[in-house]
Write a structure and sequence with these properties.
mainly alpha, 124 residues, two-stranded antiparallel ribbon
Length: 124
Amino acid sequence: MDIILGKARRRWSVEEKRALVAETFVPGSSVNGVARRHEINPSMLFSWRKRLQAELGFAKEPDCASFAAVSIAGPETSPAATVPAPTRGEVRIEIAFAGGARMTVTGAADPALVMAMTKALARR
């Protein structure tokens, strides 16, 4: 028979909990890093953090995903990439690919040809 004795249960005062939670909000630190340094289970530190962050003056993290603000700017203009504006009634589609390639389709075009060109440029 083996008898395994664990460590004695530690008790943390409210002041100690506050200090450890505040340490997790220091820029560059993480809950896991603080927990490792103080030999605490990270889940315990997360629960203290959740309970005490408003009391310590730290903003509550959102419970769900949120959207970032987006603004739409005008088209970029560069002297090397000037394309003449379409005349009235003429259709122009411009596609910029991740690799830097650009494709402009002006007027009526064969859909199969446009698809083949798009696939070829997307592979580059």
